[in-house]
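Weekly modeling sync, notes
Attendees: S.R. (lead), two postdocs, one rotation student

Agenda item 3: backlog of single-chain predictions. S.R. asked that every request posted to the team notebook include the full sequence so nobody has to chase files. The rotation student volunteered to paste the first one in as an example of the format we agreed on. Action items at the bottom.

Example entry:
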Amino acid sequence: MDNHRATEVEPGIVLLELTRPYHRNALSSNAVAELHREIDRIGGDPAIRVVILTEEGTSFCAGADIKAGPTDSIF
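Predicted structure, as returned to the notebook:
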């Protein structure tokens, strides 16, 4: 399940967008793990100088997704 989208908007500049607008971009453990993998991938590319973290929808990030339940907690 994709919880984000990474797009190179200009050479060396990546737009990293949270894509869970129906959940107000709340972070489940799966979303956090995906973001870690993406940031590791981006960080390994010496051509990328800037990462802009943004959102899809009207909320940047509501915090932890408490509806995910205790087995899917990010804490």
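Discussion: group reviewed the output briefly. The chain has a mean pLDDT of 87.
Action items: rotation student to repeat for the remaining queue; S.R. to check formatting next week.
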